[in-house]
Amino acid sequence: MGDAVVVSELAKVVGEKIIVDRISFTVEQGEIFGLLGANGSGKTTTFNMLSGLLPPSSGSVTILGKSDKEMRRSKPEIGFITQENSFYETLTVKENLEFFASQAGVPGKETAAIVKTLLGQMRLTDKADALSSKLSGGMKKRLNMACSLVHDPKIVFLDEPTVGLDPIVRKEIWVVIEELNKSGKTIIITSHYMEEVERLCNRVAIMFSGRIVASGTPKELKERYKLKQMEDVFAHLMKPVV
Ligand SMILES: Nc1ncnc2c1ncn2[C@@H]1O[C@H](COP(=O)(O)OP(=O)(O)OP(=O)(O)O)[C@@H](O)[C@H]1O
Ligand SMILES: [Mg+2]
């Protein structure tokens, strides 16, 4: 399969502060790719640049062979699932999905079928008419995901999808992510949970202070640093180079 995302020398500088420091990596179509790093290492800033929310200071992003500027003009192939829920609590689950579909420019006659598919994928069919504010934390997370998938994007960005969720709900989200990937979507995820990373990610890039300090499969990284756990690899790489 071809490349989903090619990032080349991407940087973000705000005033004197280098937030993202000329990072390069490639995500292949069909992968679940993890962008890891301590708090403040530049992951969300990178995500925002990859998904067109934030203009880079320099460098380039190519999505499915198109520059990010071309992408914004054509049908968006990206779904961006933010950490904070962004649906409307006062609408029902179905109303939220219909609203997000209309915002995303989904043709009216296609909306019912898309909403039905997403309700099924996100295990929310029984809750279609429930008020969104009444959902459990895990259901809200799944609704939040569904709202960003109404236009059937090929590449899905997930920024810390399971933060603050209990272990059972977290595993439910993992299954949903795996199913999205099996249905053909390329997934790019940030996470602080190494168990989650090992379960989901084919490959990872680890950021420290705006730079990518290591990348590879979790197995390769553990072998490279002769460490048994990804947590140890992560801790090893979070030490500043002197
Ligand atoms: N617009 C901005 N102006 C100045 N500094 C910023 C701006 N946006 C982000 N930063 C800073 O850049 C650094 C990287 O932030 P970012 O949110 O990308 O990190 P992160 O890796 O996603 O962290 P976390 O794991 O906490 O979500 C932080 O120190 C943050 O305070
Ligand atoms: Mg972040």
In short:
The protein has helices at 43-50, 68-73, 93-103, 108-121, 137-147, 167-182, 194-200, 218-224, 230-237; strands at 3-14, 17-28, 32-37, 58-63, 66-67, 78-81, 155-159, 186-190, 203-208, 211-216. It is of the alpha/beta class and 242 residues long.
Low-confidence stretches: none
By CATH reckoning, the class of the largest domain would read Alpha Beta
Largest sheet: 6 strands, mixed
Backbone structural class? alpha/beta
Strand content: 25-35%
Order of helices and strands: EEEHEEHEHHHEHEHEEHH
**Averaged pLDDT:** 92
> CATH homologous superfamily of the largest domain, by name?
P-loop containing nucleotide triphosphate hydrolases
Strand order of the largest sheet: 6-7-8-3-9-10
Oligomer: single chain
How many separate structural domains?
2
Description of the structure:
This protein has helices at 43-50, 68-73, 93-103, 108-121, 137-147, 167-182, 194-200, 218-224, 230-237; strands spanning 3-14, 17-28, 32-37, 58-63, 66-67, 78-81, 155-159, 186-190, 203-208, 211-216. The chain has 2 domains: 3-82 and 152-237, P-loop containing nucleotide triphosphate hydrolases (Rossmann fold), CATH 3.40.50.300; 85-147, no CATH class. The model has no long low-confidence stretch (mean pLDDT 92). A hairpin with a 2-residue loop joins strand 9 (203-208) and strand 10. It is built from 9 helices and 10 strands. By secondary structure, it is of the alpha/beta class. The strands form 2 sheets. Strands 6-7-8-3-9-10 form a 6-stranded mixed beta sheet, with helices on both faces. Strands 2-1-4-5 form a 4-stranded antiparallel beta sheet. Magnesium ion binds at residues 43-44, 159.
